[in-house]
């Protein structure tokens, strides 16, 4: 099984998706994958989120689908049974770290401070979600963390826009960045899948300008 660092290295931009209507899950995943975004973080913020992950894993096998907003230890075993390929949390607790280790599911723990980062490093992690990125210092904070923690890698999420994406990805300790602007709720509700694919392609171009 790939590590989170491996998964993110293959996909420097991660859509953060909130599924309100289960029927939109598969066409949305297909639209994003068609645009070059294959690692999909489906947040556990809606009643149908777990079912959406299962459906995407079953019907869009080229997608690398996982869960975001994982806040309960018991979610790990459920996600693994559904076929999820990773889990991401907004923060991390001892219970979450232990559940992740027991499940074997690749885990991206969320951190917002040097102390939280050190706790994760002590547990053997080398890649973290930096959240909420913009609110806790963004590019400036990540650049500052590079000095004392040069081996730590991050996927900043929260407040990042298409316009600021390249600023984050240019940092030596940022392996990927996440955002929700790829698929606005209005486009999803209206089934504007081609528009979402076009936006994904443009963003992939920004992330890989060469």
Per-chain topology:
Elements: H1 4-9, E1 13-17, H2 25-34, E2 39-43, H3 49-59, E3 64-68, H4 75-82, E4 87-88, H5 94-103, E5 107-108, E6 110-111, H6 114-122, E7 127-130, H7 138-146, E8 153-156, H8 165-169, E9 177-179, H9 185-190, H10 193-207
Parallel strand pairs: 1-2, 1-9, 2-3, 4-5, 6-7, 7-8
Structure notes:
42% of the residues lie in helices and 15% in strands. α2 crosses α10. The mean pLDDT is 95. The protein has 210 residues and is of the alpha/beta class. It is built from 10 helices and 9 strands. The two termini are 30 Å apart. The strands form 3 sheets. It has a 4-stranded parallel sheet. Strands 6-7-8 form a 3-stranded parallel sheet. It has a single domain, classed as TIM Barrel (Alpha-Beta Barrel), CATH 3.20.20. It has helices at residues 4-9, 25-34, 49-59, 75-82, 94-103, 114-122, 138-146, 165-169, 185-190, 193-207, and strands at 13-17, 39-43, 64-68, 87-88, 107-108, 110-111, 127-130, 153-156, 177-179.
Per CATH, the architecture is Alpha-Beta Barrel
Strand order of the largest sheet: 3-2-1-9
Helix content: 40-55%
Radius of gyration computed on alpha carbons? 16 Å
Q: Which CATH class applies here?
A: Alpha Beta
Write the CATH homologous superfamily. Aldolase class I
Characterize the largest beta sheet: strand count, sense, and whether it forms a barrel.
4 strands, parallel
Mean pLDDT: 95
Pick out the low-confidence regions: none
* CATH topology label: TIM Barrel
Shape: globular
Strand content: 15-25%
Give helix and strand order, one letter per element, not per position.
HEHEHEHEHEEHEHEHEHH
The counted number of beta strands is: 9
Number of domains: 1
Task: Give me the secondary-structure category.
Answer: alpha/beta
Count of runs of 4 or more consecutive helical residues = 10
Q: End-to-end span in angstroms?
A: 30 Å
């Amino acid at each position: 099984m790939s590590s989170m660092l491996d998964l993110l290295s293959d996909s420097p931009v991660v859509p953060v998706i909130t599924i309100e209507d289960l029927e939109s899950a598969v066409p949305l995943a297909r639209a994003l994958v068609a645009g070059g975004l294959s690692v999909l973080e489906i947040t556990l913020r809606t009643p149908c989120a777990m079912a959406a992950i299962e459906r995407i894993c079953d019907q869009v096998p080229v997608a690398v689908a996982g869960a975001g907003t994982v806040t309960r230890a018991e979610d790990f075993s459920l996600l693994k049974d559904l076929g999820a390929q990773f889990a991401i949390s907004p923060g991390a607790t001892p219970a979450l770290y232990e559940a992740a280790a027991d499940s074997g599911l690749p885990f991206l723990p969320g951190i917002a401070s040097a102390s939280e980062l050190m706790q994760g490093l002590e547990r053997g992690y080398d890649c973290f979600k930096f959240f909420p990125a913009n609110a806790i210092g963004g590019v400036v904070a990540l650049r500052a963390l590079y000095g004392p923690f040069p081996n730590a890698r991050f996927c900043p999420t929260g407040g990042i826009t298409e316009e600021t994406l390249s600023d984050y990805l240019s940092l030596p300790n940022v392996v990927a960045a996440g955002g929700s602007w790829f698929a606005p709720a209005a486009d999803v509700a209206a089934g504007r899948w081609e528009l979402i694919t076009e936006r994904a392609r443009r963003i992939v171009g920004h992330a890989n300008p060469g």
